[in-house]
C-alpha cells in the first residue's frame, strides 16, 4: 500500500495499444494514476470523461494521466476509442499493481487515485472519488500545492 510522502511504486504495464508503459519513465512531471473498476461502466465512464473534458487545464498543469484497471488491452482500446480519451489506460490483468497500491478490495478494484510529484513521491491520495467532478478535484489539489 502506498501512502502520502512515500515513493510511488514503479511498475510496467501495457497500455490500450499494447505498448509497455513504465511509471519511472515519467519522473520529471506530475503524474496522476487512478484505479477504476471496469471499462464501459457508468461511473468509470463519468470519471474518464471528467478528465477528458478538462484535458486542456490538466495539460497546462503538466500532468500525465494513467487509468488502471484489471481489464484487458483490447477492452481499454474500445473504451478509449469510444470516449476519445487522450490519456493512457493500463491493463493490470494480474492485479499486481492494483494490489501494491492498496486498490484491491475483495475481488473488486477500488476507485482511488494518487498524485505523484516530479520526484516520484506521492503528494495526494484521493480515497473518495466523485466521478462527475474528479478532474476539478485534481485541478484544485494541484493548484493548492
Overview of the molecule:
- The protein is α/β, with parallel strands linked by helices.
- The protein has a single domain, classed as Glutaredoxin (3-Layer(aba) Sandwich), CATH 3.40.30.
- It has helices at 42-53, 55-60, 73-83, 96-100, 134-144; strands spanning 12-14, 20-22, 30-35, 63-69, 88-91, 104-105, 108-109, 113-116, 122-126.
- It has a 5-stranded mixed beta sheet.
Task: Output mean pLDDT.
Answer: 96
- Proper CATH architecture: 3-Layer(aba) Sandwich
**SSE arrangement, N to C:** EEEHHEHEHEEEEH
What is the alpha-carbon Rg in Å? 14 Å
The best one-word shape is: globular
Strand content: 15-25%
Q: Structural class, please?
A: alpha/beta
Low-confidence stretches: none
Largest sheet, strands/sense/barrel = 5 strands, mixed
CATH class equals: Alpha Beta
CATH topology: the name is Glutaredoxin
Distance between the termini: 23 Å
Instruction: Please report the number of helical segments.
Output: 5
Adjacency order of strands in the biggest sheet? 5-4-3-8-9
Number of domains: 1
Let me know the number of strands. Answer: 9
- Classified in CATH, the superfamily is Glutaredoxin
* Helix-residue proportion: 25-40%
Write the layout of secondary structure elements.
Layout: E1 12-14, E2 20-22, E3 30-35, H1 42-53, H2 55-60, E4 63-69, H3 73-83, E5 88-91, H4 96-100, E6 104-105, E7 108-109, E8 113-116, E9 122-126, H5 134-144
Parallel strand pairs: 3-4, 4-5
Antiparallel strand pairs: 1-2, 3-8, 6-7, 8-9
Quick rundown:
It contains 5 helices and 9 strands.
What keywords describe this structure?
145 residues, alpha/beta, Glutaredoxin, five-stranded mixed sheet, two-stranded antiparallel ribbon, 9 strands, globular
Amino acid at each position: 500500500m502506498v501512502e502520502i510522502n512515500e515513493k510511488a511504486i514503479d511498475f510496467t504495464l501495457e497500455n490500450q495499444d499494447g505498448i509497455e508503459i513504465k511509471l519511472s519513465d515519467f519522473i520529471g512531471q506530475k503524474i496522476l494514476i487512478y484505479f477504476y473498476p471496469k471499462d464501459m461502466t457508468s461511473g468509470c465512464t463519468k470519471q474518464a470523461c471528467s478528465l477528458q473534458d478538462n484535458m486542456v487545464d490538466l495539460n497546462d498543469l503538466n500532468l500525465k494521466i494513467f487509468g488502471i484497471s484489471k481489464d484487458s488491452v483490447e477492452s481499454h482500446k474500445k473504451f478509449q476509442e469510444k470516449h476519445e480519451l487522450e490519456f493512457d489506460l493500463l491493463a493490470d490483468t494480474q492485479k499486481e499493481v492494483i494490489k501494491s497500491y492498496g486498490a484491491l478490495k475483495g475481488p473488486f478494484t477500488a476507485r482511488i487515485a494518487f498524485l505523484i510529484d516530479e520526484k516520484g513521491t506521492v503528494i495526494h491520495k484521493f480515497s473518495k472519488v466523485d466521478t462527475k467532478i474528479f478532474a476539478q478535484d485534481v485541478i484544485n489539489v494541484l493548484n493548492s500545492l
